[in-house]
Design brief:
Largest sheet: 6 strands, antiparallel
Helix content: 10-25%
Structural class: alpha+beta
Number of strands: 23
Radius of gyration: 39 Å
Strand content: 35-45%
Strand order of the largest sheet: 2-17-21-20-19-18
């Protein structure tokens, strides 16, 4: 298709006295279409968590397999619990002791209040017993706070998965010292759903904004549908939803970051994977569609061969657009009423007559025989 029909010259000319060459011709497909823009980008996890310990100690146990899928609250690591269990027992004993002192101080203060009403005790002694009661109550509050802290530290020796997703490898082996809030133990990324980030140029961003504006003005809900394709996939088959557009354009690159979210039930998509996204780029309009094989090239021009009623062919310059339903959208150059050559371009040159074999193009072009 890329070989210029003009360059074929006399080699493809109709032989003097010979029959006109046979070519396959058809009328373009004309129907309502919506144009789509394609962008490249990478997948990213909705949530990514670096797993670190909240307490220090020697690693005693690893409870997962590297690269496995884990669920929220699954046990991942265990730090030696014995020092923290001892501290917890000590804190519980301190609470019990403080509770006993408070009970005694309260009883002593109540007895002093009873004696004060009969005048058998001095006011100073009553104040002293009241002070002892208040101090004992404060000691109990302090002991209970220490107990809660000891309980937290003891619980933190078991490190559980904060989110569900795929876990990375362990970064530390059993027996090594783990420093609180410092040692990176592993990482977890969520898998389903998954984000796809891509950069949109200013022209496409303005076109997309106009589509949304026209949809709102017509009373229709603006579409946020998108389709994704992976490396090696020609067709966009994975549905996604646009859910984020940044609040400013990067002055250095002239682009704005956007994001779609997609289901990932089969867990095939992983963060960092390269892909392509297809988003709505125009409102519905009447479009002229032709096969890619019908388009010839002449230097910087694209053209098609138009067949007149008497079989004479002539070149008509066109401006191709994106692929839609297996065809190439023609932005300008054709009205849809023409008869064009779709097969046998190498046997055509300007001004000759051909023997057309008519063919009707289906509304959607078959891909790989399907």
């Amino acid at each position: 298709m890329a070989i210029s029909a003009f360059a074929v010259g006399a080699a493809t000319a109709q032989m003097p006295g010979g029959p006109p060459p046979k070519v396959t011709v058809a009328k373009p497909v004309v129907k309502d279409v919506v144009e789509y823009d394609e962008f490249t980008g990478r997948f990213a996890a909705v949530d990514s968590v670096d797993v670190r310990a909240r307490v220090s100690g020697y690693l005693e146990k690893v409870g997962f397999t590297d690269g496995a899928i884990v669920k929220k609250d699954d046990l991942l690591f265990v730090i030696d619990r014995r020092p923290y269990k001892a501290a917890l027992d000590q804190a519980q004993a301190s609470v019990a002791s403080a509770q006993a002192r408070l009970t005694f101080a309260q009883t002593d203060y109540e007895r002093a209040q009873s004696l004060q009403r009969t005048g058998n005790i001095s006011d100073q002694l009553v104040d002293q017993r009241r002070q002892s009661y208040v101090s004992a109550r404060a000691d109990l509050d302090s002991a209970q706070g220490a107990l809660r802290n000891a309980q937290l530290n003891f619980d933190f020796t078991e490190i559980k998965a904060p989110v569900s997703g795929r876990i990375s490898r362990r970064n530390i082996s059993v027996g090594n010292l783990v420093n609180a809030n410092d040692t990176l133990l592993t990482n977890i990324v969520t898998m389903d759903p998954i984000y796809f980030y891509f950069d949109v140029d200013e022209r496409s961003y303005l076109a997309y904004s106009r589509v949304l504006l026209m949809a709102r003005q017509s009373g229709n809900e603006p579409t946020s549908d998108a389709l994704l394709a992976l490396t090696g996939e020609r067709e966009f088959k994975r549905p996604a939803k646009m859910d984020f557009i940044d609040n400013r354009i990067d002055q250095a690159s002239g682009t704005i970051q956007a994001r779609v979210i997609a289901e990932n039930k089969d867990l095939l998509l992983v963060p960092g994977l390269f892909g392509r996204v297809q988003v709505t780029g125009s409102p519905p309009h009447r479009g002229v569609l032709i096969p890619d094989e019908a388009i010839a090239t002449d230097q910087d021009r694209r053209f098609v061969w138009v067949v007149a009623g008497d079989g004479t062919v002539s070149a008509k310059v066109v401006r191709p657009g994106p692929r839609i339903d297996g065809y190439r959208l023609i932005r300008s150059g054709l009205t849809g009423d023409e008869t064009i050559v779709v097969n046998g371009l190498q046997r055509v040159r300007p001004g000759i007559k051909v023997t057309p074999e008519r063919q009707e193009l289906p509304p959607v072009k078959a891909v790989n025989g399907q």
